[in-house]
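hiii, so i know i said id send this last week but things got crazy w the move. better late than never?? heres the sequnce for the chain we talked about at the cafe, plus the structure i predicted for it. fair warning i was half asleep when i ran it
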Amino acid sequence: MGGFSVQNLWYMRQFYAEYHDNERLQPLVGEIAWAHNLAIMSKCKDTLEREFYLRMTRKFGWSKNVLIHQIENQSYEKSLLGQTNFNKTLTPALRTQAKLAVRDEYTFDFLELGEKHSERELERALIGRIEDFLRAMGGMFAFVGSQFRLEVEGREYFIDLLLFHRRLQCLVAIELKIGDFEPEFVGKMQFYLTALDRQVREDGENPSIGIILCKEKNRTIVEYALMPADKPIGVATYQIVKRLPKTLKGQLPSPEQISRILEDGV
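okay and structure toks below
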């Protein structure tokens, strides 16, 4: 046993105690690096949270720094609470993956913006830190363009940000709103997604998805607004300074539901 520090020996003992009789997680821990396992074991509070980060690290190939960033930004809670209409607008093969790709809240703590800013200032700041932005979105996104131009019947329309999700194989339109969510935002996004699917989407790609990114939202208003929508849309909030609402924990799905989501989607 020469060469191992006391701390490393303690970690090994803890690692064995945590996983030796957990047949569900044993295959996962063997597929990622020791440093990643240590980060997950030390920073995650329960088995389901650990499973989430184990599966996401394996799937997206996160570096240790990216993994720690995702944990510190509460990606687990935010992914499971996302408000979308994907159950009725996407095929079973896509909907769980898409739910994990669209969070309830995004943290852009790398931006040098005050609490008061315009939508244009927010857009420019995100583009100026594009790598940080794509990382904050959760991985597997590629940047397509900003103020992406669409023309319908001689009239011009512009999507704030257009991304492409490599695993979902679809375009992702993002609309930035610096205020509260309003129901009419959904109709505008539906129009954009229809135009993207008819004019921009390539053969073999999946239907385009929309993310309406607001400063604040009322969950009931979002739920009502998404009910009649027939295009895949998610509504999320963003923050410049880290914070985790105390209500978040109480809104999480049951352990059984979380387990099914992780098995189906990752």
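btw Residues 115 and 123 are 14 Å apart (CA to CA). thought thatd interest u
miss u guys!!
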